[in-house]
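Hi! If you just cloned this repository, the fastest way to understand the data is to look at a raw example. We've pasted two of them here, unedited. The first protein comes first, obviously.
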Amino acid sequence: MDKLDAMTLCVAVVQDGGFSSAARRRGVSAPVVTRAMSGLVEVLAKHAPPAVPVQALQHQGLRASRKVRAFIDLAVERLRR
């Protein structure tokens, strides 16, 4: 089964609310759906983004919050004029 078929089965599982009902609708056995889903999980695991250290997120968050605060301060100052 190719990736497109596996993705189609994945959509069917979501739409039908389960592996068995998706298998019946697509005319395949439940184990075929299970294997297709497992294959997609493996593909997605290989392409997962690398973990970002918490310190980097904290630094970016602080920088972003400072920018937002500066914008709010500027907007309040201009509105008061």
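Ok, and the second one:
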Amino acid sequence: MKLISEKLEVRGATLLASCLELENAVILIISEGRVRLGTTTIAIPESEWGVPYSSTILGERDSVASRMVAEHAAKKTGKIALASVHLKSVKVEDAAGPIMKLVEKVLSGGSRG
């Protein structure tokens, strides 16, 4: 089991990302300001059409971002992915790029240096 955390500033707000890697799954929590549970999506690596399949299981406000994170993580890792996204003041349109940068960082093992 491995836990990696990163943060990034976006429009004056701090986005936090944590990734818990298990043998068969990854759990990602993306939140603004403090670590909070948000809209949660689960994804499996491939459906019968060769693309990840996901379902939002909690909330709806940040469902687009949550699905994007879960599906990307499932495809990249080949594992089940559970992703939670909680944004307060930053809009999804402004946060999508930075969120994916954070996801890439935590899935790749975090900052080096």
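That's it. A detail worth noticing about the second one: The helical segments are 63-77, 92-107.
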